[in-house]
Amino acid sequence: VGCDRSESLVDICGEKNFQAFVCDALSVPIRSGSCDACISIAVIHHFSTAERRLAAIRELARLLRPGGTALIYVWAMEQEYKNQKSKYLKEKNGSKDKEEEISTGTAQRPLGDQMPDSSSQDSGCSDGLCNDWKGEGWDAKPVADSRLPVHTNRTSFHSQDLLVPWHLKGGTKKKGESVDTVLFSAGSKESQELNPVFHRYYHVFCEGELEAVCRTLDCVRVQKSYYDQGNWCVVLEKL
Prior knowledge:
By secondary structure, the protein is α/β, with parallel strands linked by helices. Helices cover about 25% and strands about 25% of the residues. The protein has 7 helices and 10 strands. It has a 4-stranded mixed sheet with strand order 3-4-10-9. Strand 5 and strand 6 form a beta hairpin. The longest helix has 14 residues. The two termini are about 25 Å apart. Keywords: Methyltransferase, Transferase. One of its GO terms (biological process) is tRNA wobble uridine modification. It comes from Nyctiprogne leucopyga.
């Protein structure tokens, strides 16, 4: 059984005869201890505070029966690991990235005015930043600036908390409607209307961070922790 915050994605599952429902990952309407396994892929990195990320993992643990397991994937700060570039970096292509850089560079940040990444007080994964969660105060770092840098797609990360451009291709359309294919110059008003750019919040995880968060819960143990194509992953067992 699947669940998602997006009604449209749940509708797609229904069309494919999969069981799915709309819900909030912090409050899943399933009985405690009733699941043999839970999978959370690319969800928890969208929660904007350490407390909410921990709450999402705690909710997964609540659903599991004793001995049940959970698999969690989150986006990694380290897109180049052990001298190997992730698939995310490898898929970079010139023409697409130029368009994305143009959109990214002119994007209006919802939380403030334009700001160079270098001036953000949390930009870059400094040793101090990435080591904060290794001690008792992993979630105690105060927010230094309410403005977030906008990431350039297919490049390395320079901040743990950022906005990632998401390009809606062809604009919005309802079922049964057709969209005419019209070519516009990049950056034109018509192009922006047909291909709007949205910005999604991400907290990208440093090495060991996800595992450290999971270890704060007494009800689970970390069976396995590993890196997979630009993601940090853990397998948890319910005690």
